[in-house]
Amino acid sequence: MGQQGLERDLVDAAVYERATQRFRDAKIRMPTFAELAEPARISDDIEGRLAAVDPDAPDPLNLFRVHWFNDADRRARASVPQHLVLPTSLTGVEAPIIVALGNRFPMIAAHKVLAAYSCLAPRIVTGQFDPIEQRAIWPSTGNYCRGGVAISRIMGCRGVAVLPEGMSQERFDWLDQWVADPSDIIRTPGTESNVKEIYDKCAELAQDSANVILNQFAEFGNHLGHYLVTGRALEAIVEAQRPERPDLEVAAFVSATGSAGTIAAGDWLKDRYGAKIVAVEALECPTLLENGFGEHNIQGIGDKHVPLIHNVTNTDLVVAISDVATDQVLAVFNTDAGRAYLSGRGVPAALIAELGSLGISSICNILAAIKTAKALDLGPNQAVATIATDGAAMYQSELDKITARDFPGGFDGVAAAETFGRHVLGAGEDHLLELTRTDRDRIFNLGYFTWVEQQGIPLAEFEARRDQGWWRDLRSLLPVWDEMIDEFNDRTGANAPS
Ligand SMILES: Cc1ncc(COP(=O)(O)O)c(C=O)c1O
Protein backbone atom coordinates (compact mmCIF):
# COMPACT_ATOMS: atom_id res chain seq x y z
CA MET A 1 0.00 0.00 0.00
CA GLY A 2 3.02 2.34 -0.10
CA GLN A 3 1.98 4.20 -3.25
CA GLN A 4 -0.03 7.36 -2.63
CA GLY A 5 -0.43 8.92 -6.05
CA LEU A 6 2.03 11.74 -5.42
CA GLU A 7 4.09 11.40 -8.60
CA ARG A 8 4.58 14.40 -10.86
CA ASP A 9 6.71 12.66 -13.52
CA LEU A 10 6.37 9.72 -15.81
CA VAL A 11 6.94 6.48 -13.87
CA ASP A 12 6.71 3.82 -16.58
CA ALA A 13 6.86 4.77 -20.27
CA ALA A 14 5.66 1.37 -21.53
CA VAL A 15 2.60 1.46 -19.29
CA TYR A 16 1.94 5.04 -20.39
CA GLU A 17 2.14 3.97 -24.03
CA ARG A 18 -0.40 1.18 -23.50
CA ALA A 19 -2.76 3.56 -21.68
CA THR A 20 -2.57 6.02 -24.59
CA GLN A 21 -3.32 3.22 -26.98
CA ARG A 22 -6.41 2.12 -25.00
CA PHE A 23 -7.69 5.68 -24.60
CA ARG A 24 -7.15 6.35 -28.31
CA ASP A 25 -9.02 3.17 -29.31
CA ALA A 26 -11.87 3.71 -26.85
CA LYS A 27 -12.02 7.45 -27.73
CA ILE A 28 -11.61 8.55 -24.13
CA ARG A 29 -10.70 12.16 -23.54
CA MET A 30 -9.77 13.06 -19.97
CA PRO A 31 -11.10 16.23 -18.35
CA THR A 32 -8.58 18.33 -16.45
CA PHE A 33 -9.16 19.15 -12.79
CA ALA A 34 -9.53 22.79 -13.82
CA GLU A 35 -12.37 21.85 -16.19
CA LEU A 36 -14.16 19.85 -13.49
CA ALA A 37 -13.78 22.74 -11.04
CA GLU A 38 -15.11 25.23 -13.58
CA PRO A 39 -17.07 23.32 -16.22
CA ALA A 40 -17.57 26.56 -18.19
CA ARG A 41 -14.02 25.82 -19.42
CA ILE A 42 -15.20 22.62 -21.15
CA SER A 43 -15.32 23.22 -24.90
CA ASP A 44 -18.69 23.90 -26.54
CA ASP A 45 -17.92 21.08 -28.89
CA ILE A 46 -17.79 18.52 -26.08
CA GLU A 47 -20.81 20.07 -24.39
CA GLY A 48 -22.72 19.76 -27.65
CA ARG A 49 -21.84 16.09 -28.05
CA LEU A 50 -22.67 15.42 -24.39
CA ALA A 51 -26.26 16.51 -24.91
CA ALA A 52 -27.00 13.25 -26.73
CA VAL A 53 -25.35 11.06 -24.06
CA ASP A 54 -27.40 9.36 -21.33
CA PRO A 55 -25.93 10.48 -17.97
CA ASP A 56 -26.09 6.88 -16.73
CA ALA A 57 -24.41 5.28 -19.73
CA PRO A 58 -20.80 4.03 -19.60
CA ASP A 59 -19.90 6.60 -22.24
CA PRO A 60 -16.44 8.24 -22.13
CA LEU A 61 -17.99 11.66 -22.60
CA ASN A 62 -19.67 11.25 -19.20
CA LEU A 63 -16.26 11.96 -17.65
CA PHE A 64 -17.07 15.56 -18.57
CA ARG A 65 -20.06 15.37 -16.24
CA VAL A 66 -17.96 14.35 -13.22
CA HIS A 67 -18.57 17.73 -11.56
CA TRP A 68 -21.14 19.52 -9.40
CA PHE A 69 -22.66 21.67 -12.14
CA ASN A 70 -25.12 19.16 -13.62
CA ASP A 71 -28.74 20.18 -13.90
CA ALA A 72 -31.57 18.32 -12.12
CA ASP A 73 -31.99 15.97 -15.10
CA ARG A 74 -28.14 15.64 -15.18
CA ARG A 75 -28.07 16.28 -18.94
CA ALA A 76 -27.45 20.00 -19.17
CA ARG A 77 -24.99 22.16 -17.29
CA ALA A 78 -26.29 24.41 -14.53
CA SER A 79 -24.74 27.84 -14.04
CA VAL A 80 -24.63 27.21 -10.28
CA PRO A 81 -24.31 23.74 -8.72
CA GLN A 82 -27.65 22.34 -7.63
CA HIS A 83 -28.09 22.90 -3.93
CA LEU A 84 -30.54 23.46 -1.09
CA VAL A 85 -30.52 26.29 1.42
CA LEU A 86 -32.16 24.87 4.51
CA PRO A 87 -34.31 27.39 6.42
CA THR A 88 -35.08 27.61 10.13
CA SER A 89 -38.37 25.73 9.64
CA LEU A 90 -36.37 22.62 8.74
CA THR A 91 -33.35 23.07 11.01
CA GLY A 92 -34.43 25.03 14.07
CA VAL A 93 -31.34 27.28 13.72
CA GLU A 94 -31.02 30.75 12.23
CA ALA A 95 -27.86 30.02 10.26
CA PRO A 96 -28.64 28.98 6.67
CA ILE A 97 -27.36 25.48 5.93
CA ILE A 98 -26.20 25.18 2.34
CA VAL A 99 -26.19 21.66 0.90
CA ALA A 100 -24.64 20.84 -2.49
CA LEU A 101 -26.44 17.91 -4.13
CA GLY A 102 -24.31 14.92 -5.09
CA ASN A 103 -27.05 12.90 -6.76
CA ARG A 104 -26.56 15.05 -9.87
CA PHE A 105 -23.30 13.24 -10.69
CA PRO A 106 -23.39 10.83 -13.65
CA MET A 107 -23.50 7.04 -13.66
CA ILE A 108 -23.74 6.48 -9.91
CA ALA A 109 -25.86 9.49 -8.81
CA ALA A 110 -23.32 10.18 -6.06
CA HIS A 111 -20.27 12.42 -5.81
CA LYS A 112 -17.82 9.55 -5.25
CA VAL A 113 -17.32 9.16 -8.99
CA LEU A 114 -15.28 12.35 -8.62
CA ALA A 115 -13.04 10.70 -6.02
CA ALA A 116 -12.62 7.68 -8.28
CA TYR A 117 -11.61 9.85 -11.23
CA SER A 118 -9.32 11.96 -9.04
CA CYS A 119 -7.43 8.86 -7.89
CA LEU A 120 -7.22 7.26 -11.32
CA ALA A 121 -6.39 10.25 -13.55
CA PRO A 122 -2.94 10.95 -12.01
CA ARG A 123 -2.15 7.23 -12.24
CA ILE A 124 -2.96 7.17 -15.94
CA VAL A 125 -0.97 10.23 -16.93
CA THR A 126 2.09 9.23 -14.90
CA GLY A 127 2.14 5.71 -16.43
CA GLN A 128 1.06 3.89 -13.27
CA PHE A 129 -1.98 2.07 -14.54
CA ASP A 130 -2.16 -0.14 -17.57
CA PRO A 131 -5.82 -0.51 -18.60
CA ILE A 132 -4.94 -3.27 -21.04
CA GLU A 133 -3.05 -5.59 -18.68
CA GLN A 134 -4.12 -4.57 -15.19
CA ARG A 135 -7.23 -4.65 -13.02
CA ALA A 136 -8.28 -1.57 -11.05
CA ILE A 137 -9.16 -2.45 -7.46
CA TRP A 138 -11.53 -0.05 -5.71
CA PRO A 139 -11.67 -0.54 -1.90
CA SER A 140 -14.71 1.16 -0.48
CA THR A 141 -17.79 0.98 1.67
CA GLY A 142 -19.96 1.42 -1.36
CA ASN A 143 -20.07 4.51 -3.54
CA TYR A 144 -16.39 4.90 -4.40
CA CYS A 145 -16.24 1.36 -5.74
CA ARG A 146 -19.34 2.07 -7.85
CA GLY A 147 -17.64 5.18 -9.25
CA GLY A 148 -14.47 3.18 -9.86
CA VAL A 149 -16.29 0.34 -11.58
CA ALA A 150 -18.11 2.85 -13.80
CA ILE A 151 -14.84 4.46 -14.88
CA SER A 152 -13.14 1.08 -15.32
CA ARG A 153 -15.96 0.06 -17.64
CA ILE A 154 -15.51 3.23 -19.68
CA MET A 155 -11.83 2.33 -20.00
CA GLY A 156 -12.70 -1.21 -21.06
CA CYS A 157 -10.66 -2.63 -18.20
CA ARG A 158 -11.58 -4.92 -15.31
CA GLY A 159 -12.67 -2.96 -12.26
CA VAL A 160 -13.01 -4.80 -8.97
CA ALA A 161 -15.22 -3.55 -6.12
CA VAL A 162 -14.08 -4.49 -2.62
CA LEU A 163 -16.76 -3.68 -0.05
CA PRO A 164 -18.28 -5.01 3.18
CA GLU A 165 -21.02 -7.58 2.71
CA GLY A 166 -23.40 -5.60 4.97
CA MET A 167 -23.79 -2.56 2.69
CA SER A 168 -27.19 -1.60 1.22
CA GLN A 169 -28.77 -3.97 -1.30
CA GLU A 170 -29.11 -1.12 -3.81
CA ARG A 171 -25.31 -0.84 -3.99
CA PHE A 172 -24.97 -4.54 -4.81
CA ASP A 173 -27.82 -4.37 -7.36
CA TRP A 174 -26.04 -1.53 -9.13
CA LEU A 175 -22.71 -3.39 -9.09
CA ASP A 176 -24.30 -6.57 -10.47
CA GLN A 177 -25.29 -4.60 -13.54
CA TRP A 178 -21.96 -2.86 -14.09
CA VAL A 179 -19.15 -5.35 -13.40
CA ALA A 180 -17.68 -7.40 -16.22
CA ASP A 181 -17.81 -10.58 -14.15
CA PRO A 182 -19.55 -11.45 -10.83
CA SER A 183 -16.16 -12.29 -9.32
CA ASP A 184 -15.33 -8.58 -9.64
CA ILE A 185 -17.49 -7.90 -6.58
CA ILE A 186 -15.54 -8.93 -3.49
CA ARG A 187 -17.49 -8.94 -0.24
CA THR A 188 -15.42 -8.47 2.91
CA PRO A 189 -16.70 -9.31 6.42
CA GLY A 190 -18.78 -6.82 8.37
CA THR A 191 -20.46 -3.51 7.67
CA GLU A 192 -19.67 0.18 7.46
CA SER A 193 -16.87 0.47 9.99
CA ASN A 194 -14.94 -2.65 8.95
CA VAL A 195 -12.33 -0.82 6.90
CA LYS A 196 -9.39 -2.87 8.23
CA GLU A 197 -10.93 -5.99 6.64
CA ILE A 198 -10.99 -4.12 3.31
CA TYR A 199 -7.29 -3.22 3.69
CA ASP A 200 -6.47 -6.86 4.44
CA LYS A 201 -8.22 -8.05 1.29
CA CYS A 202 -6.40 -5.39 -0.75
CA ALA A 203 -3.04 -6.47 0.69
CA GLU A 204 -3.85 -9.99 -0.50
CA LEU A 205 -4.87 -8.78 -3.98
CA ALA A 206 -1.77 -6.58 -4.23
CA GLN A 207 0.41 -9.72 -4.24
CA ASP A 208 -0.59 -10.04 -7.88
CA SER A 209 1.05 -7.30 -9.98
CA ALA A 210 -1.93 -7.36 -12.35
CA ASN A 211 -3.94 -5.70 -9.59
CA VAL A 212 -3.56 -1.97 -8.96
CA ILE A 213 -5.10 -0.86 -5.67
CA LEU A 214 -6.60 2.62 -5.91
CA ASN A 215 -6.84 3.18 -2.20
CA GLN A 216 -9.02 6.25 -1.67
CA PHE A 217 -7.96 6.45 1.99
CA ALA A 218 -4.33 7.02 0.99
CA GLU A 219 -4.42 8.49 -2.55
CA PHE A 220 -3.83 12.23 -2.40
CA GLY A 221 -5.66 12.64 -5.72
CA ASN A 222 -8.85 12.12 -3.68
CA HIS A 223 -7.91 14.99 -1.36
CA LEU A 224 -6.80 17.28 -4.19
CA GLY A 225 -9.80 16.60 -6.42
CA HIS A 226 -12.18 17.62 -3.64
CA TYR A 227 -10.03 20.53 -2.54
CA LEU A 228 -10.32 22.12 -5.96
CA VAL A 229 -13.49 20.72 -7.56
CA THR A 230 -15.78 20.51 -4.51
CA GLY A 231 -14.23 23.58 -2.88
CA ARG A 232 -14.76 25.67 -6.01
CA ALA A 233 -18.32 24.38 -6.47
CA LEU A 234 -19.26 25.38 -2.93
CA GLU A 235 -17.72 28.79 -3.49
CA ALA A 236 -19.87 29.19 -6.62
CA ILE A 237 -22.98 28.34 -4.58
CA VAL A 238 -22.06 30.81 -1.83
CA GLU A 239 -21.38 33.59 -4.33
CA ALA A 240 -24.73 32.91 -6.02
CA GLN A 241 -26.42 33.86 -2.71
CA ARG A 242 -24.76 37.32 -2.67
CA PRO A 243 -27.48 39.31 -4.43
CA GLU A 244 -29.95 38.30 -1.73
CA ARG A 245 -27.48 38.03 1.15
CA PRO A 246 -24.64 40.49 0.52
CA ASP A 247 -23.12 39.96 3.98
CA LEU A 248 -23.15 36.20 3.98
CA GLU A 249 -20.19 34.55 5.69
CA VAL A 250 -19.22 30.91 5.50
CA ALA A 251 -18.73 30.08 9.15
CA ALA A 252 -18.13 26.36 8.77
CA PHE A 253 -17.81 23.47 6.37
CA VAL A 254 -19.17 20.18 7.66
CA SER A 255 -18.26 16.77 6.27
CA ALA A 256 -18.76 13.26 7.57
CA THR A 257 -15.50 11.53 6.83
CA GLY A 258 -15.19 8.19 5.15
CA SER A 259 -11.99 8.44 3.15
CA ALA A 260 -11.74 12.10 4.26
CA GLY A 261 -11.60 13.20 0.62
CA THR A 262 -14.62 15.50 0.69
CA ILE A 263 -13.44 17.33 3.80
CA ALA A 264 -10.57 18.74 1.72
CA ALA A 265 -13.12 21.21 0.31
CA GLY A 266 -12.96 22.71 3.80
CA ASP A 267 -9.32 23.65 3.19
CA TRP A 268 -10.48 25.64 0.16
CA LEU A 269 -13.32 27.31 2.09
CA LYS A 270 -11.06 28.10 5.02
CA ASP A 271 -8.58 29.86 2.72
CA ARG A 272 -11.37 31.69 0.91
CA TYR A 273 -13.76 32.55 3.77
CA GLY A 274 -12.09 31.56 7.03
CA ALA A 275 -14.58 28.71 7.45
CA LYS A 276 -14.04 26.32 10.34
CA ILE A 277 -13.65 22.71 9.25
CA VAL A 278 -15.90 20.20 10.98
CA ALA A 279 -15.24 16.45 10.74
CA VAL A 280 -18.24 14.25 11.48
CA GLU A 281 -18.44 10.62 12.46
CA ALA A 282 -20.93 8.11 13.84
CA LEU A 283 -21.54 8.29 17.58
CA GLU A 284 -21.55 4.50 17.63
CA CYS A 285 -17.96 4.57 16.34
CA PRO A 286 -16.37 7.72 17.82
CA THR A 287 -12.82 7.27 16.54
CA LEU A 288 -11.89 10.95 16.23
CA LEU A 289 -13.79 12.02 19.33
CA GLU A 290 -12.75 9.26 21.73
CA ASN A 291 -10.38 6.87 19.89
CA GLY A 292 -13.48 4.68 19.86
CA PHE A 293 -14.76 1.84 17.74
CA GLY A 294 -18.08 0.18 16.96
CA GLU A 295 -20.72 -0.70 14.38
CA HIS A 296 -23.08 1.79 12.75
CA ASN A 297 -25.35 2.32 9.77
CA ILE A 298 -24.26 5.72 8.43
CA GLN A 299 -23.22 4.13 5.16
CA GLY A 300 -20.16 5.71 3.54
CA ILE A 301 -18.40 6.93 6.66
CA GLY A 302 -16.34 3.87 7.52
CA ASP A 303 -14.22 4.43 10.56
CA LYS A 304 -11.90 3.03 13.25
CA HIS A 305 -8.96 4.69 11.53
CA VAL A 306 -7.77 8.14 10.47
CA PRO A 307 -7.26 8.23 6.68
CA LEU A 308 -3.80 9.19 5.48
CA ILE A 309 -5.30 11.95 3.32
CA HIS A 310 -7.15 13.61 6.22
CA ASN A 311 -5.59 17.01 6.91
CA VAL A 312 -6.18 16.54 10.63
CA THR A 313 -4.25 19.54 11.89
CA ASN A 314 -6.44 21.85 9.80
CA THR A 315 -9.63 20.46 11.38
CA ASP A 316 -11.42 22.68 13.92
CA LEU A 317 -14.31 20.66 15.32
CA VAL A 318 -15.32 17.02 15.60
CA VAL A 319 -19.01 16.11 15.88
CA ALA A 320 -20.57 12.69 16.36
CA ILE A 321 -24.09 11.84 15.16
CA SER A 322 -26.01 8.72 16.14
CA ASP A 323 -27.18 6.36 13.42
CA VAL A 324 -30.51 6.19 15.26
CA ALA A 325 -30.95 9.86 14.35
CA THR A 326 -29.93 9.47 10.70
CA ASP A 327 -32.05 6.32 10.24
CA GLN A 328 -35.13 7.89 11.74
CA VAL A 329 -34.82 11.27 10.04
CA LEU A 330 -34.54 9.34 6.77
CA ALA A 331 -38.06 8.12 7.58
CA VAL A 332 -39.30 11.68 8.19
CA PHE A 333 -37.91 12.88 4.86
CA ASN A 334 -39.13 9.92 2.82
CA THR A 335 -42.63 9.10 4.03
CA ASP A 336 -45.95 10.79 3.32
CA ALA A 337 -46.53 11.26 7.06
CA GLY A 338 -43.11 12.87 7.51
CA ARG A 339 -43.51 15.21 4.58
CA ALA A 340 -47.04 16.21 5.65
CA TYR A 341 -45.69 17.02 9.10
CA LEU A 342 -42.90 19.19 7.63
CA SER A 343 -45.39 20.97 5.41
CA GLY A 344 -47.43 21.78 8.51
CA ARG A 345 -44.31 23.28 10.08
CA GLY A 346 -44.01 25.66 7.15
CA VAL A 347 -41.20 23.95 5.24
CA PRO A 348 -41.61 25.14 1.62
CA ALA A 349 -43.12 22.59 -0.77
CA ALA A 350 -40.23 22.91 -3.24
CA LEU A 351 -37.80 21.96 -0.50
CA ILE A 352 -39.91 19.02 0.68
CA ALA A 353 -39.92 17.76 -2.91
CA GLU A 354 -36.10 17.67 -2.85
CA LEU A 355 -35.67 15.82 0.46
CA GLY A 356 -35.24 12.57 -1.48
CA SER A 357 -31.88 14.01 -2.58
CA LEU A 358 -30.57 13.39 0.93
CA GLY A 359 -29.15 9.95 1.71
CA ILE A 360 -28.19 8.73 5.17
CA SER A 361 -24.77 10.39 5.36
CA SER A 362 -26.27 13.61 3.91
CA ILE A 363 -28.71 13.69 6.82
CA CYS A 364 -25.74 13.07 9.11
CA ASN A 365 -24.02 16.14 7.63
CA ILE A 366 -27.13 18.26 8.14
CA LEU A 367 -27.59 17.20 11.77
CA ALA A 368 -23.92 17.94 12.40
CA ALA A 369 -24.34 21.35 10.72
CA ILE A 370 -27.22 22.11 13.11
CA LYS A 371 -25.11 21.15 16.13
CA THR A 372 -22.24 23.26 14.79
CA ALA A 373 -24.53 26.26 14.30
CA LYS A 374 -25.66 25.94 17.91
CA ALA A 375 -22.19 25.43 19.35
CA LEU A 376 -20.77 28.40 17.44
CA ASP A 377 -23.91 30.47 18.08
CA LEU A 378 -24.26 31.34 14.40
CA GLY A 379 -26.67 34.00 13.16
CA PRO A 380 -28.65 34.43 9.92
CA ASN A 381 -25.66 35.72 7.94
CA GLN A 382 -23.35 32.91 8.97
CA ALA A 383 -23.83 29.94 6.69
CA VAL A 384 -22.77 26.38 7.30
CA ALA A 385 -21.84 24.64 4.05
CA THR A 386 -22.02 20.91 3.52
CA ILE A 387 -22.76 18.34 0.86
CA ALA A 388 -25.21 15.53 0.18
CA THR A 389 -23.08 12.67 -1.08
CA ASP A 390 -25.97 10.70 -2.48
CA GLY A 391 -29.77 10.62 -2.34
CA ALA A 392 -32.30 8.39 -0.62
CA ALA A 393 -32.66 6.21 -3.74
CA MET A 394 -29.73 4.13 -2.49
CA TYR A 395 -31.51 3.34 0.77
CA GLN A 396 -35.10 2.22 0.10
CA SER A 397 -34.25 -1.23 1.46
CA GLU A 398 -32.77 0.40 4.57
CA LEU A 399 -35.90 2.52 5.02
CA ASP A 400 -38.05 -0.60 5.01
CA LYS A 401 -35.82 -2.17 7.69
CA ILE A 402 -35.80 1.02 9.78
CA THR A 403 -39.57 1.48 9.80
CA ALA A 404 -40.16 -2.21 10.63
CA ARG A 405 -37.57 -2.05 13.44
CA ASP A 406 -38.28 1.35 15.00
CA PHE A 407 -41.92 2.04 14.08
CA PRO A 408 -43.65 -1.34 14.07
CA GLY A 409 -47.06 0.34 14.43
CA GLY A 410 -46.41 2.39 11.26
CA PHE A 411 -44.81 5.79 10.70
CA ASP A 412 -47.62 8.29 11.28
CA GLY A 413 -47.88 12.01 12.05
CA VAL A 414 -47.14 11.49 15.74
CA ALA A 415 -44.04 9.43 14.94
CA ALA A 416 -42.90 12.13 12.49
CA ALA A 417 -43.37 14.93 15.04
CA GLU A 418 -41.63 13.01 17.81
CA THR A 419 -38.73 12.00 15.57
CA PHE A 420 -38.23 15.52 14.28
CA GLY A 421 -38.45 16.99 17.78
CA ARG A 422 -35.97 14.51 19.16
CA HIS A 423 -33.30 14.44 16.47
CA VAL A 424 -33.56 17.78 14.66
CA LEU A 425 -34.96 20.39 17.04
CA GLY A 426 -33.42 18.54 19.98
CA ALA A 427 -29.92 18.34 18.44
CA GLY A 428 -27.67 19.80 21.10
CA GLU A 429 -24.05 20.65 21.67
CA ASP A 430 -23.21 17.23 23.05
CA HIS A 431 -20.73 14.89 21.34
CA LEU A 432 -18.98 17.89 19.88
CA LEU A 433 -15.42 18.99 20.45
CA GLU A 434 -13.80 22.28 19.43
CA LEU A 435 -10.26 21.07 18.87
CA THR A 436 -7.28 22.44 20.73
CA ARG A 437 -3.79 21.85 19.43
CA THR A 438 -3.48 18.90 21.79
CA ASP A 439 -6.72 17.40 20.48
CA ARG A 440 -5.49 17.75 16.90
CA ASP A 441 -2.23 16.07 17.74
CA ARG A 442 -4.04 13.27 19.57
CA ILE A 443 -6.15 12.53 16.47
CA PHE A 444 -3.18 12.90 14.13
CA ASN A 445 -1.13 10.50 16.28
CA LEU A 446 -3.87 7.89 16.15
CA GLY A 447 -3.19 7.53 12.44
CA TYR A 448 0.30 6.24 13.23
CA PHE A 449 -1.01 2.80 14.11
CA THR A 450 -2.79 2.31 10.80
CA TRP A 451 -0.32 3.91 8.47
CA VAL A 452 3.15 3.41 9.90
CA GLU A 453 2.72 0.23 11.92
CA GLN A 454 0.15 -1.57 9.82
CA GLN A 455 0.49 -0.26 6.26
CA GLY A 456 4.20 0.51 6.14
CA ILE A 457 4.17 4.23 5.35
CA PRO A 458 7.65 5.62 6.24
CA LEU A 459 7.54 7.59 9.48
CA ALA A 460 8.97 10.76 7.90
CA GLU A 461 6.24 10.75 5.23
CA PHE A 462 3.57 10.23 7.87
CA GLU A 463 4.96 13.01 10.09
CA ALA A 464 5.36 15.55 7.27
CA ARG A 465 1.58 15.81 7.07
CA ARG A 466 1.38 17.42 10.51
CA ASP A 467 2.58 20.69 8.94
CA GLN A 468 0.18 22.88 6.92
CA GLY A 469 3.07 23.89 4.66
CA TRP A 470 3.16 20.29 3.40
CA TRP A 471 -0.51 20.46 2.37
CA ARG A 472 -0.03 23.82 0.67
CA ASP A 473 2.88 22.42 -1.35
CA LEU A 474 0.77 19.40 -2.26
CA ARG A 475 -1.60 21.66 -4.19
CA SER A 476 1.11 22.43 -6.74
CA LEU A 477 0.46 18.92 -8.09
CA LEU A 478 -2.88 19.97 -9.58
CA PRO A 479 -1.57 22.18 -12.41
CA VAL A 480 1.19 19.64 -13.07
CA TRP A 481 -1.33 16.84 -13.46
CA ASP A 482 -3.53 19.07 -15.64
CA GLU A 483 -0.62 19.70 -18.00
CA MET A 484 0.03 15.97 -18.14
CA ILE A 485 -3.67 15.34 -18.87
CA ASP A 486 -3.52 17.87 -21.73
CA GLU A 487 -0.45 16.19 -23.15
CA PHE A 488 -2.02 12.75 -22.79
CA ASN A 489 -5.14 13.96 -24.63
CA ASP A 490 -2.96 15.42 -27.39
CA ARG A 491 -1.32 12.03 -27.81
CA THR A 492 -4.57 10.07 -27.97
CA GLY A 493 -6.37 12.68 -30.07
CA ALA A 494 -9.59 11.25 -28.57
CA ASN A 495 -12.69 13.42 -28.81
CA ALA A 496 -10.52 16.40 -29.65
CA PRO A 497 -12.64 19.53 -29.98
CA SER A 498 -13.08 20.26 -33.69
C1 LIG B 1 -22.71 7.88 1.16
C2 LIG B 1 -21.37 8.43 1.54
N1 LIG B 1 -21.31 9.43 2.41
C3 LIG B 1 -20.13 9.97 2.80
C4 LIG B 1 -18.94 9.50 2.32
C5 LIG B 1 -17.67 10.10 2.83
O1 LIG B 1 -16.99 10.84 1.88
P1 LIG B 1 -15.41 10.87 1.89
O2 LIG B 1 -14.96 9.48 1.58
O3 LIG B 1 -15.03 11.83 0.83
O4 LIG B 1 -14.97 11.28 3.25
C6 LIG B 1 -18.97 8.45 1.40
C7 LIG B 1 -17.73 7.90 0.89
O5 LIG B 1 -17.70 6.87 0.25
C8 LIG B 1 -20.20 7.90 0.99
O6 LIG B 1 -20.28 6.91 0.11
Task: Kindly describe this structure.
With 498 residues, the chain is of the alpha/beta class. It has helices spanning 13-25, 33-37, 44-50, 88-91, 112-125, 143-155, 169-178, 195-205, 220-241, 264-273, 287-290, 323-333, 336-344, 349-353, 360-375, 396-406, 413-425, 437-454, 459-464, 468-474, 477-492, and strands at 83-86, 97-101, 135-139, 159-164, 185-188, 211-213, 249-256, 276-282, 317-321, 382-388, 432-434. It contains 21 helices and 11 strands. The chain has a 7-stranded mixed beta sheet with strand order 1-2-10-7-8-9-11, with helices on both faces. The protein is globular and about 65 Å long. The structure holds pyridoxal-5'-phosphate (PLP). Pyridoxal-5'-phosphate (PLP) is lined by residues 112, 115, 141-144, 256-262, 299-301, 359, 361, 389-390.
Task: Name some characteristics of this structure.
alpha/beta; 21 helices; binds pyridoxal-5'-phosphate
